[in-house]
Amino acid sequence: MAARGEAILEVVRAAFPPRFALEGDRTGLQVGRVDREIERVLCTLDLTLAVAEEARDRGAQLVLSHHAVIYRRLEDLRTDQVRGRILETLLKHDVAVYVPHTALDVVPGGLNDHLAELVGLRDPRFLEATGSDGARLLVAPAPPDAEAFGSLLCAQGAQRAWRSGDRLEVLADERTVTFLARRVEERCGVPPTVFPLASHERRRGIGRIGTLERPESLQGLARRLKHRTGAPGVRVVSTEPDVVVSKVAVLGGDGRSFVPAAAAAGADALVTGDIDHHTALDARARGLNVIDLGHWASERQAAALLARGLRERLADLGVEVFESEVDTNPFEWL
């Protein structure tokens, strides 16, 4: 079975709303077209030449890549160069590419929540707020299978769905309301009436901060995360020997610019990736310990999270969603 590419991207955008991405981020449909039938979707952290060839060989018509395939400005499109060969492989075989990037970082259940769970944070909250959404109440005539249909809507992003007399009522946030309204119209035969609910406003943000179940040595936490993430090596910036940490901030990928926010929030440590020499010195001067897992290890679950977020939503469309089997970690530790 297959589904129209536009319908699949509607589901993708409902799961990872573009407005959740940070300002200026390179997101959206970057390569190819979706005005056709799509049967197979490949999810990946990075879109290297090996991943482009994997998409070709495994018959994917759409790739969801956490990192942009077109990030820096293209000065040319030479197919004797690697960047050109990646795009050539995709275009020759009609493989489209969609990039959610920081929308996956911000969305509930995304990369930052996953990293907070690995660390073991209690009651994590946003490290830095990035926006907010009000809720919407959708009301339509109840279909005969209102209870079963309500359960399906909840699996596809609704906060709640229930029968109220002869009406179906669905609570949705702004990221899913358009998609859910269409599903309700398809099943109920009329467009739902949509009511704004300011009292259900939901804030969103990047990064997470919380406390550990019990204080832990920085070295012990770093070793535990190295094992849990599969990082080949971990770098640690400590403010003093044998330091113990309790309040921890996390941010997958490049967390250099969030050192001031983590320190200002009172974090004992920041777990992230891509810390450079000068940022490390700045963190230590601010009294902030750092665990640098590396960019790849801190975000290696991106493909699995993308796939998990789409499989259930796309199941009734007959679209196969699978993860890349290519290891894109570029570093070796000696």
Q: Which terms summarize this structure?
A:
single chain; 334 residues; alpha/beta; Udp-n-acetylmuramoylalanyl-d-glutamate--2,6- Diaminopimelate Ligase, Chain: A, domain 1; Alpha-Beta Plaits; 3 domains; eight-stranded mixed sheet; five-stranded mixed sheet; 12 helices; 34% helix; globular
Mean pLDDT: 94
- Strand-residue fraction? 25-35%
Alpha-beta content class: alpha/beta
CATH architecture level-2 label of the largest domain: 3-Layer(aba) Sandwich
| Strand order of the biggest β-sheet | 8-9-7-10-12-13-14-11
Give the strand tally. Answer: 15
Judging from the principal axes of the Cα atoms, what is the shape? globular
Based on CA atoms alone, the radius of gyration comes out at 22 Å
CATH homologous superfamily assignment of the largest domain: NIF3 (NGG1p interacting factor 3)-like
Major β-sheet annotation? 8 strands, mixed
Topology-level CATH name of the largest domain: Udp-n-acetylmuramoylalanyl-d-glutamate--2,6- Diaminopimelate Ligase, Chain: A, domain 1
The string of secondary-structure elements, in order, is: EHEEEHEHEHHEHEEHEHEEHEHEHHE
Our count of domains comes out at: 3
Low-confidence stretches: none
CATH level 1 name of the largest domain:
Alpha Beta
Helical content band: 25-40%
Summed up, the helix count is 12
Alpha-carbon distance between the two ends: 47 Å
